[in-house]
Amino acid sequence: MLLVDVSIVNVALPKMTEELHSSFTSLQWVVDMYALVLASLLMVAGSVGDRFGHRRLYMGGLVVFALASLACGLAPNVSILITSRAIQGVGAAGMFTATTALLSATYQGRDRGTAFGIWGAVNGGAAALGPILGGLLTEQFGWRSIFLVNLPVAAVAVFMSFRVLGDSPHRGQRRIDYPGAVTFTACAAAVTYALIQSNTDGWTSATVIGLFAGGAVALVAFIVVEHRAQDPLLDLSLLRNPSFASLMTAGALLSGGAFAHLTYTSIWLQSILGLSPIKAGLAVSPLALTAFAVAGFGGKHLGKLAPRWPVGIGLALIGGGTLLLMLVHGDSSWPALVPGLLAAGVGVGMSTPVLASAAMSAVPHKRAGMAGGALNTFRQLGYALGIAVLGTVFAHRAASSTAQGTRNAVATSLEHVYALAGGMTLAAAILVLLFVRRSAEKAW
Question: Do 220 and 237 share a structural domain?
Fold first, then answer.
């Protein structure tokens, strides 16, 4: 449910914009606020789970998520919708962190690899279901239904959790690193806000420069705080391990390169090609459906390989597939997307399940939970920043290409978006193949 809500909004954006009379910048925030809050709070949520129990954290996050979904569905204007999306992100952070911790505590050895393979397949299935479900609900019941549908799902999940869900061991004395959480969140929020605001204010505006400067100060403060903290959100010494640092970077670039561009692809499909929401959802579904199939059926065999190979080759396929999307031009229709989406889907299915287990295996066992939380943080932050960066490219290229006509201008903008997204993931592939070496492979 929480992963569906990352992608379900994309195909509903044109309808939201029309009904709420929102700007392009507001449109970006509807998508980005959820991912940004989710990313910012994942590591602190891990600390809360370690102290109070991951089952409690999961249940609490589920309730918050459901109530925020209700607020999103009833939002009378875009400001309340964005605020409610932020609260959704708070609940999702608790759910997401607790899920990986509960899985890790429940399964051991080969069973753990199988469990995370299924978890990866569920991720792919959620990404596949999001655009299709979002299009169907928006077309039949209006955009508000994409949030209200979470309420019955949450009710079933609460019932199941009370009946079958156990807890995971936790250290009751672990302190929560509030200074680390505040400085990390401030850094992520300032940089994301600066990137999005540059669309309207320009790169040289005092607001944008001030936000970037504030983000840099917050980053320095976070590093200082983490070095001094008794129980840090992130043990920065882990980043000295080339394998771990490469996997974290790969996680961020994977989410930014593979998924962030779909927001702008959806705008092209509906606003330029005139596709209905459900048809737009189906048009982008080959990526997620292929990822689901590969993760589900190939996970068992991929686990036998050293992690740098499925992760590195998977990232290369994502990069190559995203570059294939540059086949889109002014006269293109939706089938031009299919070859690239299929190739990228294979890459996502290969790399996602292995990436999670490899990150946790690349560090000492007592830091495995922290590593899992860090990877999820980097992935969601990569998605949030990807939305902002690619949105900036999309908006600036569209503004400079208006003489070509709207259809050609949007296609040209998408070409630049796909080029940047593909380059990001190819760079991540090279990084993994070069630096995820023997230390991670032995642990794996």
Answer: no
